[in-house]
Amino acid sequence: IVDRIDDNKDGYLTTEELKNWIKRVQKRYIYENVAKVWKDYDLNKDNKIAWEEYKQATYGYYLENPEEFQDATDQHSFKKMLPRDERRFKTADLDGDLAATREEFTAFLHPEEFEHMKNIVVLETLEDIDKNEDGFVDQDEYIADMFANEEGGPEPDWVVTEREQFADFRDLNKDGKMDKEEIQHWILPNDYDHALAEARHLVYESDADKDQKLTKEEVLDNWNMFVGSQATNYGEDLTRNHDE
C-alpha cells in the first residue's frame, strides 16, 4: 500500500499523495458498496433501478402487510422513511425517468458526495434534529442529538463545550438557532477537505524526523495509526489485494 500511495515513486509519501489516495479509497468504497447491493434492487436486470423496484424491495412487505406493523414506532418509522426515500430518489434521478442509473443510484445511497444532493442532506439532518418542527435547530435540539441527560445531573464538560461551539460557530447570525444555511455550513463546510485533514494528521503523527514527508519505515513504525485510518480503509485493505 505504501508503494501504491507513492505516486512519483521517490520513496516518500507527501501530504498531497496521501490526500489523493484517501480520496481514491473513499470513492472505491462507495462504488463497491453500490455494486454489492445493485442486484438486490435491479430485479428485472435492465441495469437500472426503478423507484418501484426499490420501493418493492425495501418496503414491499410493509405495504402488503400493514397490520403487522401496528407497533407505533415501526409504523412511524416506515411511514416517515418511505416518502423521505422517494424524495431523495427523485432528487438523485437527474433525468426524471424514475429509474436510477448506477451513478444516480450512487447519489441516492451516498448523497453527501454529490453537489446536487446537498440540499437533501441538509433537509434530512434538519428533520432528524428539529424535534419541535419549527424548521430550525435550536441549541437544546443540537445537544439532544448528541447527549441525552437521562440522570438529570449536571452536564459533562464536553457538552458545555458543545453549547459554546453552538453559540460561537454554529449559530452564525446569532439568533439562537440554526437555519438551513447554517446547518449546511456545519455538516458540509466548503472550506474543509476531510481527506486533506486526515492526510495532515497522518503525516504529523508519523513524521519522526519532521521533514514533512513519510518514509516506509515511518509508516511501519506507526502502523496502528494507519490501520485506524481511511487510508487503509480502516485496515481492510491490508488483508486483500487490489489492482490499482
UniProtKB/TrEMBL annotation:
GO terms for cellular component: endoplasmic reticulum lumen. GO terms for biological process: protein transport. The keyword Endoplasmic reticulum applies. PROSITE patterns: EF_HAND_1, EF_HAND_2. InterPro entries: EF-hand-dom_pair (IPR011992), EF_Hand_1_Ca_BS (IPR018247), EF_hand_dom (IPR002048). It comes from the Eukaryota. Its main location: endoplasmic reticulum. The keyword Chaperone applies. GO terms for molecular function: calcium ion binding. It is found in: Endoplasmic reticulum lumen. Residues 1-28, 29-64 form the EF-hand domain. It holds the Pfam family EF-hand_5. SUPFAM superfamilies: EF-hand (SSF47473). Keywords: Calcium, Chaperone, Endoplasmic reticulum, Glycoprotein, Metal-binding, Repeat, Signal. PANTHER family: RETICULOCALBIN, RETICULOCALBIN-1. Interacts with PCSK6 (immature form including the propeptide); probably involved in the maturation and the secretion of PCSK6. Probable molecular chaperone assisting protein biosynthesis and transport in the endoplasmic reticulum. Required for the proper biosynthesis and transport of pulmonary surfactant-associated protein A/SP-A, pulmonary surfactant-associated protein D/SP-D and the lipid transporter ABCA3. By regulating both the proper expression and the degradation through the endoplasmic reticulum-associated protein degradation pathway of these proteins plays a crucial role in pulmonary surfactant homeostasis. Has an anti-fibrotic activity by negatively regulating the secretion of type I and type III collagens. Belongs to the CREC family. This is Reticulocalbin-3. It comes from Antrostomus carolinensis (Chuck-will's-widow). The lineage of its organism: Eukaryota, Metazoa, Chordata, Craniata, Vertebrata.
